[in-house]
Amino acid sequence: MESLQRHDHVARTWRRMQQLGPAHSLHLLLVKTINCLALFKILRGILLLEVDPAFLDCPAGYTPGFLDEKRLRHFVGDPRSGLDDAFLDEALAKGDRCYAILDGETLAAYGWYSRLPTRIDPPDLLLGFDPEYVYMYKGLTDPRYRGRRLHAIGMNRALQCYREEGAKGIVSYVESTNGDSLKSCFRLGYRAFGSIYLLRLFGYDLRLCGPGCRRYRFALHDDEPMEGMSARKA
């Protein structure tokens, strides 16, 4: 039995490597090996400037738009929402907004948008960026609604709203090991502009930003800027 399970695991791994290609497979192996000894991440910065008209029309029966706090708190009790009170407390306090697509009273898809430095994983770090852009994070589509392009529609409609408010575009990041998400973003019109390298060993951080990141002030900061954000918001 154990022999069969090992064989199935090896077969699945081999098929996955064939799908990813040798270069990405080698990259995954390298990152996983380093993470056995230390925390290591490569954050690929991505940028979306133009609204795609093909992803603006919401399917009939769905309701798109930004959700207020009352509606958001309503979804905390749904385990499929990915929302909890602690997250909402922090996100709403700094003015972040959630653009969602509802199917009746069901939260089908959403994405969060911020104009201020935002917490990432590891949670003691904040991702900073040029305030002329809006940062997208925590995108989620209910598995029951996947394949209906709701994520793309919500993102383009949100971008349209922020462009009307004066933002130049959306910035975000995808970890380098998440090849599927990177491909999906590129299909939606995003382009890569640079990478942030994070190595944490024995409690010390080494953070390196590629040259493309400086143009968008895309960098990692310690948690202390949260105080500055509160003052700036006021």
TrEMBL record:
Hydrolase in keyword set: no
PROSITE patterns according to UniProt: GNAT
EC number(s) from the headed UniProt entry: 2.3.1.-
One annotated GO molecular function: acyltransferase activity
Stated name of the protein: GNAT family N-acetyltransferase
Pfam family, one: Acetyltransf_1
Keyword GTP-binding carried by entry: no
Domain N-acetyltransferase, first and last residues per copy: 46-211
Record keywords, A-Z: Acyltransferase, Transferase
InterPro entries attached to this UniProt entry: Acyl_CoA_acyltransferase, GNAT_dom
